[in-house]
Design a protein that fits this description.
- The protein is mostly helical and about 350 residues long.
- It has helices at about 5-15, 25-50, 60-70, 80-100, 105-125, 125-130, 150-175, 175-185, 190-195, 200-225, 235-250, 255-270, 275-290, 295-310, 310-320, and strands spanning about 135, 225-230.
- The protein has a two-stranded antiparallel sheet.
- Helix 3 packs antiparallel against helix 4 and helix 12 (about 255-270) runs antiparallel to helix 13.
- The longest helix has 27 residues, at about 200-225.
- The radius of gyration is 25 Å and the shape is globular.
Length: about 350
Amino acid sequence: MNKNQVLAIVAVAAILALPFILSTYGIRLAGELFIMSIFALSLGLLMGYAGLTSFGHASFFGTGVYVVAILSQFVTNTYVLIMAAIVITGLLAWIAALMFVRITGSYFFMLTLAFNQLLYVFFYKFKSLAGGADGMSISVRPDFGFGPVTTPIGRYYVMAVIFILCYIVLHYVINSPTGKIVIGVKENTSRMRALGYNTESYKVLAFTLSGMMAGLAGSLYGFSNQFASPEIISWGLSGQALIMVIIGGSGTLLGPPIGAAVFVVLQSYISSYTERWPIIMGALFLILVLLGRGGVAHLLIGLWRKLTLPRTDVDADNQKPSYAMPKVTESDSVGGNRP
């Protein structure tokens, strides 16, 4: 068992043991943190591994919430509602990807923002279906076959287990041959195209998987908060997801959850003291970005490598080759070894 596996086991054990040291409010906050971590992971897949920066990711998150809110009036099975949210948001992401992935740069960024606002207006105006500006309540409780989950600690473990599963699945997806191709498309699209790969199809695949995971996070949010409103599809939430990924560090699986933790905890802590918390949050995030370029995860990974790398390896890496001529003694010269 290597050091990374040991670290993963310790992290899972800490997550499972955390409710025993947290207050009731802390448990509720941690449950929300796991939901936002899944949401951030979905955007991190898109930004860090596919090279697509989206400013409309809240559209899939909010759609997942509304799928649960609307269908729960007719269906109460938790598995059906979650799968419906994943499938519908995946279909929506697939359609959006077919239209957008051919566009690159700032145009892609603006198209995703426009798509986000289009869905926002749809749910805001469609009062007969989605409640309009007033939103709609969700009466169904999550039930995975062991009875309705109604307590904060029960919801915590549901969100924690699903987050761990999402992390593991995403790890295997990224390290699979398909994941390697997606990363290759991000690093050098023209070369991958020259090798015969359909680069656009891999971008569509990454966008679709990202939307499905965002829809899963949205469905969990709906079960947790028991309410759906157009605000969860606003561009503000998309911006928050971007901040989480940037703060935590894109291009790593560890970064988005760290960024989500920093954002959720700081927002909760600062907003309890002042109504002007967005100004303070903006200043803190600006400092974090300037001081920790690459994100918090990259800083932690660099520190971990320094602590775990043997000293001899560090010294070997720091050694420079010597170009001095070897010293020749009399015995090494021709005829130096005389009887």
